[in-house]
Design goal:
globular, Thiamin_PyroP_enz_cen_dom, TPP_enzyme_TPP-bd, six-stranded parallel β-sheet, 32% helix, acetolactate synthase activity, thiamine pyrophosphate binding, alpha/beta
């Protein structure tokens, strides 16, 4: 939580002990008396907000941020499952990446709503695949928007103990319904996190935080033609 020039007033926080209890709090304020007065931050900076933010930006620019490309997350899943898993998807960018970066080997291995554009398709499709193929690895590769369309089916997965794995490419909740889950933000931690998901009996949700600005390539821009196709973005040739 980034708290800039705030005092954590009880009219905002309610019970202080319960407010943002799992957050990592960064508090910046020009008045040192306000820092830690009501809510203890994990990182504090006393100073002019504009200068502090410029300093933070310089640090981020020099150190870089080891984000997880969503394409790479799917490539790692492909490697760890030897391309043998049954994959379902919702609708969105993750659907395109699942088509591009997982090496399917047989018919009916990729379950997607195609051009129907049905958001929320991935989770129930994975449930059906798990029932029909009890010995197979079934993974729903989903986006946070599409996933929330049918998030209530987590309860069904728990009750029926379906071994559905959910790789959530979150570009923007989650031990929900009692289902084992984890959250990964660093590329260096991704492979072990996916392996743990695959090794855990029963259902599992892995929340992978990916960059907001990623795009599916190649793409034709709105009102463009094939001559306007965009094939390059940030210069990367691999993920």
């Amino acid at each position: 939580m980034l708290a800039f020039g705030v005092r954590f007033d009880d009219r905002v926080t309610g019970k202080l002990e319960a407010f943002a209890s799992r957050a990592k709090i960064v508090h910046i304020d020009i008045d040192s008396a306000e820092i830690g007065k009501n809510k203890q931050p994990h990182v504090s900076v006393c100073g002019d907000l504009k200068l502090a933010l410029k300093g933070i930006n310089r640090i981020l620019e020099s150190n870089g941020i080891a984000t997880i490309p969503p394409q790479y997350a799917i490539q790692v899943l492909d490697e760890l499952t030897n391309g043998e898993a049954i994959i379902s998807t919702g609708v969105g960018q993750h659907q395109m990446w699942a088509a591009q970066f997982y090496s399917y080997k047989r018919p009916r291995q990729w379950l997607t709503s195609g051009s129907l554009g049905v958001m929320g398709f991935g989770l129930p499709a994975a449930m059906g695949a798990a029932v029909a193929n009890p010995d197979a690895i079934v993974v729903d590769i989903d986006g946070d928007g599409s996933f929330m369309m049918n998030v209530q089916e987590l309860a069904t997965i728990k009750v029926e103990n379906l071994p559905v794995k959910i790789l959530l490419l979150n570009n923007q909740h989650l031990e929900a319904c009692g289902i084992a889950s984890a959250r990964v933000t660093k590329r260096a931690d991704l492979r072990a996190a996916i392996q743990k998901m695959l090794d855990t009996p029963g259902p599992y949700l892995l929340n992978v935080i990916v960059p907001h600005q990623e795009h599916v390539l190649p793409m034709i821009p709105a009102n463009g033609s094939f001559e306007d196709v965009i094939t390059e973005g940030d210069g990367r040739i691999s993920y």
